Give the backbone structure.
Amino acid sequence: MRILHVSHQQLKYLGARNYFFPVRINNGFIRNNHEVFWFSDRDVARCSNIFGTRRMGVKACNRKLLEVCRNFQPDVIALSSADIIQAETLVEARKLLPNVAIFQYFIDALFIEHNVQHARGKAEVVDWTFATTAGPILSRLAGSHSRVAFIPNPVDSSIDIHRCHERTDQPHDVFFAGHAHKSLDPEDLRGRAHSLIRERLPAARCAFYGQDQGNALYGAAFMRALGEAKIGLNFSQRDSGSEPGPGGALYLYSSDRIGTYLGNGLLTFTTRPFRLSELYGNDAIVEVDGPEDFVDRLHFYLEHDGERQRIAATGYNLAHGEFNERLVSQYMIEATLGLPFSHPYRWPTESFGRQI
């Protein structure tokens, strides 16, 4: 079928972010034998005015999307963070294409209210919404006639090329790349991990990027650095009021970092409030409960490299086999079109409507 994929391609970064979530989903569409037209809304908006700004190109971008609909005549429109595209434009697209199915996938954390409102902005004009948080909180994203379901972060073997679980000669023991948001709980391990390791495990060889100003890492340099480490810290940010467990805003949430870590064979550490062991299992990741547990378990795996390799290999094989870009993209198509599932998906497939 023909899929119109509406998502920014990060073109302004000139190849520095070619491993991000929408790239993987687009690859999945193509590898599942769909014909795909990728419409990069933010880039089209910038190119549609002499000042090169997104804001001044909104009207032209929406007009051009409708022209693509006329020319390409997609069976499915898939949107991701398409903040330039207006709900009214999708209403017009349905008039042009009465049988078109429309879904959006949303990858930002739902404990930030702005993100919830952003995802709800098109709830009345899409058929389905997919999010990287699970559980009943998804009903907040539903429209009068649209449903919402969970999707995991995908692995892509054309991007995730390292096999860190097979090596013992890496120059770094621990890897982390990311920023600490201003809303971060000051006691959260995302912000404390580096200092804890420095104080309690000074012999550990760390590669931390993004915590200090000017230290961010992207592109091929990011992938090379990741491939030279043994352990990756998948510590997602959260605020102090975030509710853990089923029904909470943290349940099964992770940034796309977890797919990159698992997919490249790093032993992946996560924190218990997100309950990711319920998705991947305790034999594929290391789920820690607070600072002391983190230090103790990190020390154990630094001293027992064979165990590090064993669990990392389990995570690698599981991620590539059951959480790859082909399965995640096909699941969204099947759910949106009401097709029988072609695979026994490992993640929760329960969908949620609006609560009355």
